[in-house]
Specification:
The protein is of the alpha+beta class. It folds into four domains: 192 residues, Aminohydrolase, N-terminal nucleophile (Ntn) domain (Glutamine Phosphoribosylpyrophosphate, subunit 1, domain 1), CATH 3.60.20.10; 189 residues, HUPs (Rossmann fold, 3-Layer(aba) Sandwich); 66 residues, no CATH class; 70 residues, no CATH class. It contains 19 helices and 18 strands. Strands 2-3-1-9-8-10 form a six-stranded antiparallel β-sheet, covered by helices on one side. α7 packs across α19 and α9 runs antiparallel to α10. The longest helix has 21 residues. The two termini are 45 Å apart.
């Protein structure tokens, strides 16, 4: 499908783009593109008052559309991929398939557009002379700066400390904003306009089998269209399959689309993931490979990389918009092998925030919205809490709470967190992500949130694509819609009981149980950076957070560490060297 493409568009407010801006763009790419400099390919186009740069780590320009694609008197760049490369001529058009942002230049005109979930982001800023639009926030900021320095928007970083990603259209960099979903920024004659298409309003839940089939039809067609190009892939798609919901629908989808594929599952033969994946593979008659975890002697401690190295790589890859608490996929040379996983399958089930709820009452849903935006208020300054409350207001004002949480998931959990974190994986190639497809997201959001949350939609899709999976149980909690469902007639169907999730003995993680040595390293960095953090956190509360030998809120500790390292100049700059590994002891070595 593709790999990372980086785009930068410049539009002059006067007649010409200053030559220094062009030189800065060519120099700054090595800081902003998280791949080795020697694998970067570059192309650029210059017209009247407009320049468009493109960079990629793809080995050549064989993937269509090309990096900078001539199209009837204009130049088009596509970050991400189009389901049908011929649709390049229809851009900007957020009704077409794929996961992409579109970049278009011609004399005197520059536009950039996001798709419905902005998983391929667009960032923008302006100076006295220039409008700057790019796919990497740091690159946009470096072009907007007069001096060779980074100016951080410290107040905006309160959400990074709270959640580990952005719940706003802000970025870590002063003056740089993220374009909203389904939005186009256009600069013509030196003037900027931004036009936004609201997310779809879901229709009412259908109340008959016929209407349900019809409502699901558009979503089914959109899913089939995402995998159609894979029929001609040079080798079978490799699907990482578990016993869960989101990868099962992908196996059914590939089967229905007649796309050659094979499946792999990580785990022991006795694990429900392996047992159920084996049954799915047998029913669909596909090759199944089980990758057993390495059998090692039980260890009382592990050696881990120094947090500063981890933070540097995360800042470099995710530009300060994902916490080093997250495990970002490391760089490997580009590969064209098609791979697939169930990332963002929650889109078909009304989003992860709704799925966390057991109480769907109005007060409980409003509490979920509030906690999403301004949890842990004691830790933060009055100014940071006020900022968080302002960000929450438009979502609190929505009468339909299920819709609000569904859209928060698309806007921020997909559009900011995944958009940032997936930059790591994209360096290796472009894994196929049907749930991120523009048409799929649009069709899903058009279906009633309560109906999607019941899981009847995703279950119906599975049986529509692969009826032979009818009697294969699901792992974990039962399908939500089966609560109280009984067999009414001999020919009626009730899903089989679920297979309980197996608790494995390998649940200990050094990230969530950091131990005293790692806690000490995190503590030293954060407490040593309190001056830089002062606008957003209360120093006494931060000290209290680290008061125990082992920090009790490791997620928050890592978020603070990431922001502290960024504000004190860890990146951009050279990778830290000569740092000792840290010993993390198992908290329960007797077990």
């Amino acid at each position: 499908m593709g790999a990372v493409r980086v785009y930068l568009g410049l539009a002059a407010k006067g007649r010409d783009i200053p030559p220094q801006a062009l030189a800065t763009a060519r120099e700054a790419i090595e800081s902003a593109f998280p791949v080795p400099a020697e694998v970067i390919r570059a192309d650029e186009w210059h017209g009247g008052g407009v320049s468009l740069f493109g960079w990629s780590n793809e080995p050549d320009d064989s993937r269509l559309p090309r990096l900078l694609h001539p199209d009837g008197g204009r130049i088009v760049g596509v970050n991400g991929h189009l389901a049908d490369p011929a649709d390049v001529s229809r851009l900007p058009d957020d009704s077409i398939g794929g996961a992409f942002s579109a970049w278009i230049a011609r004399d005197g005109e520059l536009t950039a557009s996001t798709a419905i979930n902005r998983v391929c982001p667009v960032f923008y800023a302006e100076t006295a002379d220039l409008h700057i639009v790019g796919s990497r926030a740091l690159l946009v900021h470096l072009l907007a700066q007069r001096a060779d320095r980074i100016d951080f928007d410290v107040l905006a970083l309160q959400t990074m400390v709270r959640q580990g990603f952005f719940l706003s259209d802000e970025t870590p960099y002063k003056g740089v904003s993220a374009l909203r979903p389904s939005t186009t920024i256009a600069i013509r004659g030196g003037s900027r306009t931004i036009s936004e298409t609201p997310l779809p309003v879901a229709g009412p839940a259908p109340d008959s089998p016929r209407l349900k089939r019809a409502a699901i039809g558009e979503l089914a067609e959109a899913l089939l269209a995402t995998v159609e190009p894979l029929r001609s892939a040079p080798e079978p798609v490799n699907l990482a399959l578990t016993g869960g919901r989101d990868t099962r629908i992908l196996a059914a989808l590939l089967h229905a689309a007649k796309v050659p594929f094979r499946v792999t599952t990580n785990g022991l033969d006795t694990h429900p993931d392996v047992i159920l994946a084996r049954r799915i593979a047998a029913a669909l008659k596909v090759e199944h490979t089980v990758i057993a975890p390495p059998q090692t002697a039980a260890k009382d401690a592990v050696l881990v990389e120094h947090p500063l190295e981890r933070a540097w790589e995360t800042l470099r890859t995710c530009e300060g918009m994902t916490s080093a608490y997250e495990s970002i996929v490391g760089y490997l040379p580009y590969s064209g092998k098609p791979t697939m996983s169930g990332q963002s399958g929650e889109t078909l089930r009304a989003g992860s925030l709704n799925l966390l709820q057991t109480d769907l009452g109005d007060k409980a849903l409003l509490r979920r919205i509030n906690n999403t935006f301004y949890k842990d208020e004691k830790l933060f300054t009055a100014e940071a809490n006020e900022h968080a409350r302002e960000l929450a207001k438009p979502w609190q004002a929505r009468e339909n709470r299920l819709e609000a949480l569904d859209h928060i998931y698309i806007w921020y959990k997909v559009g900011r967190w995944q958009a940032s974190a997936r930059a790591g994986a994209l360096r290796r190639g472009d894994p196929v992500r049907p749930f991120l497809d523009n048409r799929v997201a649009r069709a899903a959001l058009s279906l009633d949130q309560g109906w999607r949350l019941s899981e009847e939609v995703i279950y119906t899709l599975i049986l529509r694509f692969a009826p032979q999976l009818r009697e294969v149980p699901i792992e974990g909690k039962p399908w939500r819609f089966t609560d109280g469902l009984k067999k009414r007639w001999p020919w009626s169907h009730v899903p089989p009981p679920s297979m309980p999730t197996q608790k494995s003995g390998g649940g200990w993680s050094w990230r969530t149980s950091p131990g005293p040595d790692l806690t000490a390293v995190l503590r030293e960095q954060v407490l040593g950076s309190l001056d830089a953090l002062a606008p957003i956190v209360n120093p006494d509360e931060v000290r209290a957070l680290f008061a125990d030998p082992v920090v009790k809120k490791p997620g928050t500790a890592w978020h603070l560490y990431t922001v502290a390292a960024m504000l004190t100049g860890l990146y951009p700059g050279k990778r830290p060297e000569g740092l000792e590994q840290i010993t993390v002891s198992r908290p329960d070595p007797g077990r």
